[in-house]
Specification:
Layout: E1 5-7, E2 13-17, E3 22-28, E4 31-45, E5 48-52, E6 56-60, E7 66-81, E8 94-97, H1 100-111, H2 118-133, E9 136-137, E10 140-142, H3 147-158, H4 166-173, H5 177-188, H6 192-209, H7 214-220, H8 226-237
Parallel strand pairs: 1-3
Antiparallel strand pairs: 2-7, 3-7, 4-5, 4-6, 4-7, 5-10, 6-8, 8-9
Helix pairs in contact: 1-2, 7-8
């Protein structure tokens, strides 16, 4: 069983990770903002996985056991916040939109973490104000608690491009499609098509960060055409897969 590293204080710093680099499971007594100025960061917890490209940041509440993985070359900016500072009022991990101003605040605040002067305190105050305004984004892939659904989850994650119907999956694990559909709504509040789309989009973000062309991503994630994938991606994230949005 892997030991979970415990840090009493969440660090504020910048860090580079090579593509495929990992920060093993750990937890902090503080909250933490995790922002990748370059590349895409994936954070995994027992409750699911969160993915954040360069226009998004991750909110990791105090005490959450989490693991980082880099997709693409990663410039990682970490901001530790004591538990008294929770500008978002969130007690679960979340992905946040990063405006151009918030991006520059995070980068500047993590550039010189040892500086405790008045200018840095003012910078911190503006950073907290901007965090409070940052809207959540739909980049969470929840992990079901139901054992049958976990089996389905593992199949879909291993082959997100597969043409799996709920009937097919039910036959593989020994359950009816009706049972799986009912449990899925009770556990995650999702229909099967919506859940499968979330899994595919999650995988698509990782492939895009690794430099896979949009057309190849579309087919590897189960869409019949690149245009269909682009349309679903735009409706979900507000921009096309190849664009860098102005958050």
């Amino acid at each position: 069983m892997q030991e979970i590293r415990h840090e009493s204080v969440a660090p504020t710093r910048t860090q580079r990770l090579a593509a495929g680099g990992v920060i093993d499971a750990h937890r902090h007594d503080d909250h933490q903002i995790v922002y990748a100025g370059r590349g895409t960061i994936a954070v995994t917890t027992d409750a699911g996985a969160w993915v954040a490209p360069a226009t998004r940041a991750l909110w990791i509440p105090a005490g959450t056991v989490h693991r980082h993985e880099a997709h693409g070359e990663l410039d990682l900016h970490l901001v530790g916040l004591p538990t008294a500072d929770n500008p978002l009022g969130l007690d679960a991990p979340a992905v946040l939109a990063v405006s151009p101003l918030l991006r520059e605040l995070i980068v500047a605040y993590t550039r010189d973490p040892g500086n405790g002067g008045p200018a840095r305190l003012r910078l911190r105050a503006v950073l907290l104000d901007q965090l409070a305004l940052a809207p959540e984004q739909p980049l969470h892939l929840p992990v079901p608690t139901d054992p049958l659904l976990r089996e389905v989850h593992d199949i879909l994650r291993a082959d997100p491009g597969g043409d799996h119907s709920l009937d097919d999956l039910g036959r593989r694990i020994g359950a009816s499609a009706r049972t799986l559909s009912r449990r899925l709504r009770a556990d995650l509040g999702l229909t099967f098509p919506r859940w499968r789309t979330q899994i595919r989009l999650h995988h698509a973000l990782i492939l895009l960060a690794d430099g896979v062309p949009v057309t190849a991503v579309a087919h590897r994630c189960g869409w019949s055409s690149a245009s269909t994938f682009i349309d679903v991606f735009r409706r979900t994230f507000g921009h096309t897969p190849g664009a860098r949005p102005a958050a």
